Amino acid sequence: DTGVSQDPRHKITKRGQNVTFRCDPISEHNRLYWYRQTLGQGPEFLTYFQNEAQLEKSRLLSDRFSAERPKGSFSTLEIQRTEQGDSAMYLCASSTGPTPQHFGDGTRLSIL
Amino acid sequence: DQQVKQNSPSLSVQEGRISILNCDYTNSMFDYFLWYKKYPAEGPTFLISISSIKDKNEDGRFTVFLNKSAKHLSLHIVPSQPGDSAVYFCAASADGGATNKLIFGTGTLLAVQP
What we know:
The structure holds 2 protein chains of 2 kinds. By secondary structure, chain A is mainly β. Chain A is built from no helices and 11 strands. In chain A, the strands form 2 sheets. In chain A, strands 2, 4, 5, 6, 9, 10 and 11 form a 7-stranded mixed sheet that branches. In chain A, strands 1-3-8-7 form a 4-stranded antiparallel sheet, with no helix packed on it. By secondary structure, chain B is mainly beta. Helices cover about 0% and strands about 55% of the residues of chain B. In chain B, the strands form 2 sheets. In chain B, strands 2, 4, 5, 9, 10 and 11 form a 6-stranded mixed sheet that branches. In chain B, strands 1-3-8-7-6 form a 5-stranded antiparallel sheet, with no helix packed on it. At the A-B interface, strand 5 and strand 10 of A face strand 4, strand 5, strand 9 and strand 10 of B.
């Protein structure tokens, strides 16, 4: 499978806990994006990496959110002190061009 | 403020007929537009895109039309097939996509009836 891989597919946690998601992009794709999708809405941009550099962040990405892409390969998205409003599908995408063309199947986060 | 709007939450079409999905935008700085298809429990899949310097782009059964003066674009699927049943998202970006940030609409659920 050479697509974008996300792990886990589903995460259930209690409010206040920390969670971390992983994204493995298509190899040789230097651009990596994180989006968030809530029910009935389209995906919303969170952040963007080119290689290991985080070049753009949305104001949706509060201080509780942090994303990394060490060595320019896989990426992690961490949410600290989760809140009910963090419940969503977190999507990762990668590309070689300026817009995301290949999305993963997402990690669905459910906050109890 | 919804900058990209898909006002039809759902559309039902008979197999073999044309499906027309519509999208309106408000930001005149948008100059690159994309359509994605999404099946349940899967991530969005890129379908087709169009730059604002064009008014039409065609790829097989899929054609996107752009009307800049009306700030409107549409996706035509001809002929429609049952496998086309999915949620379709319209997305837009400014600076030819160089901002790396796409603004998505809320999606239209297309059901193609056999």
